[in-house]
Structure formats: structure tokens, C-alpha cells
Amino acid sequence: MPDYARVYARQEYLTPGAAETVDIIAETVQPTERSLLLDVACGKGEAAATLAGRFACRIAAVELYDPFIHHSAAKAWFFNLRDLITILRGSGRRLPVRDGVFDAGYCIGGPSIVGLKDCLRELSRVTKRGGHIIVSDIVWRTKPGTLSEDEWKWLARMEPASLDEYAGVIEASGLRVDRRHMHERGAWDDYWRPMLEVAEEAMTSQPADIGFADDIESAVALERRAVESYINYATFVATKA
């Protein structure tokens, strides 16, 4: 497994447009001190810390990757949010919570990694009727034929879903799609910039870690080609019927 903690060492959000998605969550949910939110695949816990710090809402943040669990817990402690944020070790495919508990749920950039249908099913299961569910993810504006895995790596293993098809999967999960937001191309550049800074540091450190730097630069180059040819990033806002 890649050393994600090191790759993302210079950034708190781990997907394109994540800060903008958090603003969409805040605008949509309008949480209060009485609100209980669910954060699936919380990463480094930045969204949970931002929302809890701004609105004093309670958040259960679920994450499977141990370094990010520790980072999120340390962040909650550092910002004095321990009474508001609960970190749970678990998978978005099978959330360790009861049905219909949460006022709203969100997954920023993780549904297709967790497993899109499973993630949406679980988010729907644990959210109250009338509650909002917000997800962001890759969508395909152009569908290629069969891609070579040697050339396209993880992209070749993805099941391409257009904006409309992704919305259809959400609605098939018992949710009503209320809003679709396509992130600007610059969101990708903002996402890549700190990763490339990490690569530069690895290249110029003593001793230089050229292999690690090459891995990051190759991954960014692959994503850049994918963005230019096939993919965008979108946030969807839905309501549980």
C-alpha cells in the first residue's frame, strides 16, 4: 500500500474541490448544536473539524486507514473538538452504526473507492428520512473504449459513470438528487500542488528518495492526462425520501 500519510503530508484535504464540498455541506445541512452528522472515509478529519468547529455540531467520522485515524483523533484533540467528533474505525461498505441515526451524511471523494453502491446504500440506511446526503467523486465526461491497464493503471479498472449515470445510481439507492455541482479544473491543480511539493522535497533531501518522488510525479501525470481526456470532479446533494 502506498504511504498515503507521506504523500498527503502537506495537505489536509485529500480530494479535488473538498473545501468547496464542505461549504456545500454547510449551506445544505445548516447544522446546529443539535445536529448529528456522519463523515464516511474521513481521511485526515479536516471536514469534520471544520464543520464541528464552525457549527458545534456532533460528527461521527469513519475511517479505515490507521495513520489517518490517528491524525484525525489528534486534530480533534488539538482543536478542542473531542466532545464533538467521534472517530470510528470502519469501512463505508458496512458502517458500524444503527439505522436512521444521522441528520445528514457525507462522503468526500470516497464513494467509488469504498464501493459506490455499497457506500450509498449505507449512507441511506443510517440517515433519517428527509436528511441530506452529500457525496463528491470522479465523473466521466467522455467514455473511452477499453483502456490499457499498463498505461492507465487504476483508471483502467474504474467503471466509467457520467454525471447523469452517477446521479442515477444515487437515486437507485432511495435518494432524490437535488443538486449537481461540477468543480472547476483549477480544483485539480490545487489538489496536486502540495503533492508535487512533497515530491520535490523528497528529490532534494539528503539522501534523496528518488523512487518516492517519481511515484508521486507519475501518479500526478497520470491524473493530469485523465483530466485532460476523460474525467471531471463533481459533488452531488441528495435527500433521503
For the structure shown, list the relevant keywords.
globular, Rossmann fold, alpha/beta, 46% helix, 241 residues, seven-stranded mixed β-sheet
Question: Could you please describe the fold and organization of this structure?
Answer:
The protein has one domain (4-240): Rossmann fold (3-Layer(aba) Sandwich), CATH 3.40.50.150. It is built from 11 helices and 7 strands. It has helices at residues 4-7, 18-29, 46-55, 66-78, 111-114, 116-126, 149-152, 154-157, 163-172, 186-204, 210-229; strands at residues 36-40, 58-63, 85-89, 102-108, 127-140, 175-182, 231-240. The chain has a 7-stranded mixed sheet, sandwiched between helices.
Which secondary structure elements does this structure contain, and how are they paired or packed?
Blueprint: H1 4-7, H2 18-29, E1 36-40, H3 46-55, E2 58-63, H4 66-78, E3 85-89, E4 102-108, H5 111-114, H6 116-126, E5 127-140, H7 149-152, H8 154-157, H9 163-172, E6 175-182, H10 186-204, H11 210-229, E7 231-240
Parallel strand pairs: 1-2, 1-4, 2-3, 4-5
Antiparallel strand pairs: 5-7, 6-7
Helix pairs in contact: 10-11
